[in-house]
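Design a sequence for this backbone.
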């Protein structure tokens, strides 16, 4: 390489270092800048010893880069993964895989340049034979400063494309390798909608029965989870995996409004508090292994790194396959070693049989079920915990005997009797016609008994399931105690008259008597008037929200929320009866930290799902409001997205009925996962539903959203929800849903 090219290469390295550390005074950078200027002078003067000086400078670069590597802060690592010189997915395809074909589609809503998909293969030498092992490669593509890639921020149709090709890989029986290079998904609600599509991805990926290996570089919140649910999760040593970007966390912590900017010091503090680095995520158990990178991060010319990455993804895929099927002794021993040497020397077929695929899904479920077990507080004694476990076994055994064994036989017998009765009725009708019998009752009509008439008209009875009793609600809102008049926000357009607060929030249940506008109501109103909470049995109330990251000042905020609300977390789980039907309810309450979901809330939700599954009860999620995933819990919070979604999928596959009802503001991670994956979602007229609030959309995209963009009617038009309910008829609508919706095995009917 000529001297000028070597100088240009060092100049690029210096520019890269400046971008990472240029926000602070650094003697190493100043020294490199001075020495590089001297080399340029010597080269320009034609000095003969310019080459020797350049060799010394290259050694100095290597030495100082190693020194700076030890000084990296979490925010420095964020700048590394965002840098245009950072490796991208195209670089990986070119250097890790032996051949590939990029896959896409036609039209704007199929091609998303932020999501790159390719079918590739890895060539392995087995004796004298070369074996090409196919794999589906899916990941966000940033490119090297290519603006049309949108910085790896994927739109809903990009995630839909990824899910489609994951299913293609499942049909072909080949492994999936996903690479996460995203700051987060693009927050638009255009169909299919960011939240809807991420929820659909998580729900479907949980049952993709081929090995999935994920490699994290930049893992931002829901955008990472859209393709990050995997059997083995690897992470590049300079990467980060977080519930939110450090800038976003700083904006929330600083309570910024309008065009205010956060300070760089606050951003750096938030990056440290969130524990976003590879080593921290490995310690918490959300990453299986860290892949070492060169000093200051991998760039396209680091060919040794690509060999390491190739070895690691091969090893991870082998491990997944080995864990679900039997294999020879020596290969098992080689994979169990921490350092296998040449991982490519351990050859294994990546195709799985039927039994191995079943084992794969079971191990995946167990893997995520164990996560975040140390991130909440469970104050139950060991005796109570043991009793709860035994009780769960008893419920499962009862359901197995009552429904699967005895119940299945009764069901088959009943079906046989109904078929025989139908045949006999048809023979009777035809015989009557042949004999010209014209009696009053010819088997096709006649008088109907009062009991049969009541059964036929049961669902049409408008009073069935009403919340009101003796002209009054069971629970009255404290707002009804205010002696004042309230103006409806639609008064100018609809001509609504002012309403007296005791009438509006008392008899009218917070609904304008003229236009039907729904004012906000407390979650207690729904608990007592809709879900009969006064007679319900609450369970798992001992599970408390905690501060697993020791986030500065957050313990105080949690304690304040406990005192203010009387709750230990934002999730209330209980068992109740709605018009004689046993039901399990999980409620997210907005007054406790905005209804945000952390490890405690996720654990309570999963236990509610497991209880409903064991007892063969329907499950209702009432969302009084949720601000998303609790950022102060970091990855402990964001991991609840795949954890809870997998539990929901398991419950629904067993035949359970899962209803979701939204109210007030419901945004972000929960909506984009375990809430948004239900086929039966409804909104109260006062609800706002979406992936991100108006302020977040404007901040991240520069687009000003129109009024009502997240309203219930817009959510219905986009297909996010299946209906809009009046608050006063909510109990009746739930009862009707329990009688009419759901698939097989609805034993509670």
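Sequence:
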């Amino acid at each position: 390489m000529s001297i000028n090219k070597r100088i240009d290469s060092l100049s690029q390295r210096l520019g890269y270092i400046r971008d990472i550390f240029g926000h602070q005074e650094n003697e190493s950078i100043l020294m490199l800048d001075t020495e590089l200027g001297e080399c340029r002078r010597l080269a320009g003067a034609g000095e003969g010893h310019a080459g020797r000086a350049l060799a010394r400078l290259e050694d100095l670069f290597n030495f100082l880069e190693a020194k700076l590597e030890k000084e990296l802060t979490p925010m420095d690592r964020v700048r590394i993964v965002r840098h245009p010189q950072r490796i991208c997915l195209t670089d990986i395809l070119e250097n890790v895989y032996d051949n590939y074909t990029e896959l896409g589609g036609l039209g704007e809503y199929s091609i998303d340049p932020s999501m790159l998909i390719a079918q590739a293969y890895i060539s392995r030498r087995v004796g004298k034979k070369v074996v090409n092992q196919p794999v589906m490669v899916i990941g966000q593509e940033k490119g090297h400063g290519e603006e049309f890639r949108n910085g790896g921020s994927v739109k809903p149709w990009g995630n839909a494309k990824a899910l489609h090709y994951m299913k293609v890989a499942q049909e072909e029986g080949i492994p999936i390798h996903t690479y996460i290079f995203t700051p987060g998904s693009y927050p638009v609600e255009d169909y299919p909608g960011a939240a809807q599509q991420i929820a659909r991805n998580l729900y479907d990926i949980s049952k993709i029965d081929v090995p999935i290996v994920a490699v994290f570089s930049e893992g931002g919140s829901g955008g990472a989870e859209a393709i990050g649910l995997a059997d083995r999760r690897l992470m590049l040593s300079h990467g980060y995996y977080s519930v939110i970007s450090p800038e976003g966390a700083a904006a929330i912590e600083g309570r910024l409004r309008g065009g205010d900017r956060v300070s760089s010091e606050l951003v750096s503090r938030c990056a440290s508090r969130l524990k976003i680095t590879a080593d921290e995520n490995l310690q918490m158990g959300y990453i299986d292994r860290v892949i070492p990178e060169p000093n200051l991060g991998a760039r396209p010319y680091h060919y040794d790194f690509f060999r390491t990455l190739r070895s690691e993804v091969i090893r991870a895929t082998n491990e997944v396959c080995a864990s679900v099927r039997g294999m020879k002794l020596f290969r098992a021993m080689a994979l169990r070693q921490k350092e296998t040497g040449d991982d490519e020397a351990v050859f294994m077929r990546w195709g799985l049989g039927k039994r191995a695929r079943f084992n794969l899904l079971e191990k995946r479920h167990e893997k995520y079920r164990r996560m975040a077990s140390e991130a909440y507080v469970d104050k139950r004694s060991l005796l109570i915990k043991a009793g709860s476990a035994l009780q769960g076994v008893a419920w499962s055994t009862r359901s197995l005997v009552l429904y699967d064994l005895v119940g299945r036989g009764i069901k088959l017998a009943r079906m046989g009797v109904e078929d025989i009765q139908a045949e006999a009725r048809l023979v009777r009708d035809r015989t009557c016609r042949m004999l010209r019998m014209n009696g009053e009752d010819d088997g096709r009509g006649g008088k109907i008994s009062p009991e049969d008439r009541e059964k036929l008209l049961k669902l049409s009875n408008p009073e069935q399931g009403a919340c009101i009793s003796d002209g009054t609600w069971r629970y009255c809102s404290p707002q009804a105690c205010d002696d004042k008049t309230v103006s409806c926000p639609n008064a100018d357009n609809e001509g609504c008259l002012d309403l007296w607060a005791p009438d509006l929030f008392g008899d009218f249940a917070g609904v304008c008597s003229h236009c039907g506008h729904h004012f906000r109501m407390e979650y207690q109103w729904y608990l007592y008037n809709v879900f009969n909470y006064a007679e319900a049995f609450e369970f798992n109330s001992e599970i408390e929200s905690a501060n697993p990251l020791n986030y500065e000042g957050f313990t105080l905020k949690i304690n304040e929320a406990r005192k203010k609300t009387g709750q230990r977390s934002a999730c209330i789980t209980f068992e109740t009866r709605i018009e004689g039907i046993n039901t399990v309810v999980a409620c997210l309450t907005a007054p406790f930290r905005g209804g945000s979901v952390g490890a405690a809330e996720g654990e309570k939700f999963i236990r509610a799902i497991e209880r409903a599954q064991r007892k063969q009860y329907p499950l209702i999620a009432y969302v009084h409001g949720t601000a998303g995933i609790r950022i102060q819990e970091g990855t402990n919070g964001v991991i609840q997205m795949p954890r809870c979604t997998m539990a929901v999928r398991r419950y629904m596959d067993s035949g359970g009925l899962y209803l979701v009802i939204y109210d007030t503001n419901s945004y972000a991670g929960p909506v984009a996962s375990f809430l948004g994956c239900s086929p039966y979602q409804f909104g109260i007229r006062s609800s706002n539903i979406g992936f991100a609030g108006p302020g977040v959309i404007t901040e991240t995209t520069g687009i000003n959203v129109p009024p009502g963009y997240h309203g219930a009617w817009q959510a219905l038009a986009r297909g996010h929800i299946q209906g809009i309910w009046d608050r006063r008829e909510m109990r009746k609508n739930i009862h009707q849903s329990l009688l009419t919706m759901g698939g097989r095995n609805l034993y509670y009917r």
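The chain has four domains: 3-71, 82-309, 380-428, 521-740.
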